[in-house]
Automatic annotation (TrEMBL):
Domain called Pyridine nucleotide-disulphide oxidoreductase dimerisation: residue spans: 348-457
GO MF term set: dihydrolipoyl dehydrogenase (NADH) activity
Keywords: Disulfide bond, FAD, Flavoprotein, NAD, Oxidoreductase, Redox-active center
Family: Belongs to the class-I pyridine nucleotide-disulfide oxidoreductase family.
Organism: Mesonia profundi
Organism superkingdom: Bacteria
EC number(s) reported in the record: 1.8.1.4
Full protein name: Dihydrolipoyl dehydrogenase
Length: 468
């Protein structure tokens, strides 16, 4: 029987990063993945394919609607080749997942394909698709089994017309009318993909605003821009029934006045969140506690109630984000190696890759109000930037929230072109506990979108923004 210092179950961004860090630290490491490709949800059916489709559909929309503004004329009709677009996405996924297999080899990590399940605290059975079982021994195990789409109890996800993100990433036709249940990250990103490709899109959201966990100003701005893009929103609607009638999907919902309304479309994307995945893990055999929310319960060291077993990523509490899972992978590897790592969860940014993009770090204005923190706010509109006018991306803003007394930056919230990348500046600033004055006094290259960060900082320190 092979024996390891560490066995990692699951090869998503949590698992594969944990395995690499363990190997770097000299620990003999194995990784177990039930699918034939590495990379988990993120690389196979999540971050990477969705971003590939967002980029491709963005190009298509630019060619259709915006090239002309730049004086570019396309003789003849701009045509969509959906099969080719999907093929490109598949190639991007393949290259990326193969890259992870290469990294496993490079770091001398043993890879097992099959479902990993606990026999006891130190033995893991691996059942391959061919029905061959292997057992390995591991001093430490890291559970990184991720999550799966969740649904509503009355929905029959037939995966043909009533679908999750996994199917939405490989549709063979552009829907005529895509109904999206849930105005969160997946609903808006994939809704925007199909809107750009020509579908009518209606987003039905339970709360009174889209992206309800982000700063309310971001929800308002994104909704405004997406409405201009002709995406329809039914907010404060409680879905009560979803039925596939053959060629059509019919959704019944009650609006905020309690009136029953009906929506009809040809596809329904259910994007109401994801649930932790522990099926097949046989956690009971090792005595591992799973809580009521189906999460593997962990302490502040990400250790389960069983001393030598840890858990990371979507399968535990917290934001379901690839970079959060990665930080936790490194954290646990270093903890097992005897180091004392730290994660500041407040500084894990959140991004929505619509266009304009949405990005946040730290506290929202709503959270500061709830915590009764005295704060100052500085906001700068993207449309006032030369860079935005040059590219034509004038929607959005940067908002910086600071402690009123100390000027320390407490939260940064952005909507606009390339803010997914811009948010890194805010993370660095907050990591070093910068004040708005610090940011305001740093030179920002001209013309860049980043100038909006400096201007918002100037606005937060008083009425000092220079270009409004
Ligand atoms: P996962 O990536 O879910 O990986 C878990 C792995 O464990 C899987 O490969 C699974 O097959 C394997 N596994 C499970 N049980 C077993 C077992 N018993 N034995 C062996 N293997 C097992 N996050 C971002 O930060 N940015 C984004 O842009 C983004 N976009 C997304 C888009 C979509 C459409 C979706 C669905 C998600 C997106 N996410 C994004 C979320 C991100 O994918 C997850 O947060 C991330 O993948 C979690 O990583 P993980 O390692 O915890 O789990
Ligand atoms: P989400 O939590 O982002 O959004 C779910 C939305 O559905 C919420 O707005 C919620 O209010 C709404 N909702 C819940 N129940 C409802 C109901 N009965 N009727 C109508 N609306 C309802 O979840 P998601 O969009 O499914 O994404 C799942 C996870 O994947 C998220 O945790 C997210 O962090 C992650 N993800 C991240 C990215 C990214 O980082 N860019 C992209 C995609 C997914």
């Amino acid at each position: 029987m092979s024996t390891y210092d560490v066995a990692v179950i699951g090869s998503g961004p949590g698992g594969y990063v944990a395995a690499i860090r363990c190997a770097q630290l000299g620990l003999k490491t194995a990784i177990i993945e039930k699918y034939s490709t590495m990379g988990g949800t993120c690389l196979n059916v999540g971050c990477i394919p969705s971003k590939a489709l967002l980029d491709s559909s963005h190009h298509y929309e630019d060619a259709l609607k915006h090239f002309e503004d730049h004086g570019i004329e396309i003789p003849g009709e701009v045509k969509l080749n959906l099969e080719k677009m999907m093929g490109r996405k598949a190639t991007v996924v393949e290259q990326t997942t193969k890259g992870i297999a290469f990294l496993m080899d490079k770091n001398k990590i043993n890879t097992y394909e099959g479902v990993g399940s606990f026999k006891d605290k130190t033995h893991i059975n691996i059942a391959s698709a061919e029905g061959e079982d292997v057992t390995i021994e591991a001093k430490h195990t890291i559970i990184a089994t991720g999550s799966k789409p969740s649904s509503l109890p009355f929905i029959d996800l037939d995966k043909e017309r009533i679908i999750t993100s996994t199917e939405a990433l490989k549709l063979k036709e552009v829907p005529k009318h895509m109904l999206v249940i849930g105005g969160g990250v997946i609903g808006l990103e994939l809704g925007q993909v199909y809107k750009r490709l020509g579908a009518e899109v209606t987003v039905i959201e339970y709360m009174d605003r889209i992206i309800p966990t982000m700063d309310a100003a971001q929800s308002k701005e994104l909704a405004k821009v997406m409405k201009k893009q002709k995406v329809k929103f039914a907010l404060s609607h409680k879905v009560t029934a979803v039925e596939n009638t053959g060629d059509e999907v019919v959704i019944k919902a009650t609006d905020k006045k309690g009136k029953e309304v009906e929506f009809k479309g040809d596809y329904c994307l259910v994007s109401v969140g994801r649930k932790p995945f522990t099926d097949g893990l046989e956690a009971d055999n090792a005595g591992i506690k799973i809580n009521d929310r189906k999460q593997v319960e962990v302490n502040e060291h990400l250790q389960t109630n069983v001393e030598n077993i840890y858990a990371i990523g979507d399968v535990i509490k917290g934001a379901m984000l690839a970079h959060k899972a990665e930080e936790e992978g490194v954290f646990v590897a270093e903890t097992i190696a005897g180091q004392k790592p730290h994660i500041d969860y407040n500084l894990i940014p959140g991004v929505v890759y619509t266009w304009p993009e949405v990005a946040s770090v730290g506290k929202t204005e709503e959270q500061l109000k709830e915590d009764r923190v005295e704060y100052a706010s500085g906001q700068f509109p993207m449309r006032a930037l030369g860079r935005s006018r040059a590219s034509g991306d004038i929607d959005g803003f940067v908002k910086i929230l600071t402690n009123k007394e100390t000027d320390e930056v407490l939260g940064v919230h952005m909507v606009g072109a390339r803010v997914a990348d811009l948010i890194a500046e805010a993370v660095v600033a907050m990591e070093f506990r910068a004040s708005a004055e610090d940011i305001a006094r740093m030179s920002h290259a001209h013309p860049t979108y980043a100038e909006a960060v400096k201007e918002a900082a100037l606005a937060a320190t008083g009425d000092r923004a220079l270009h409004v």
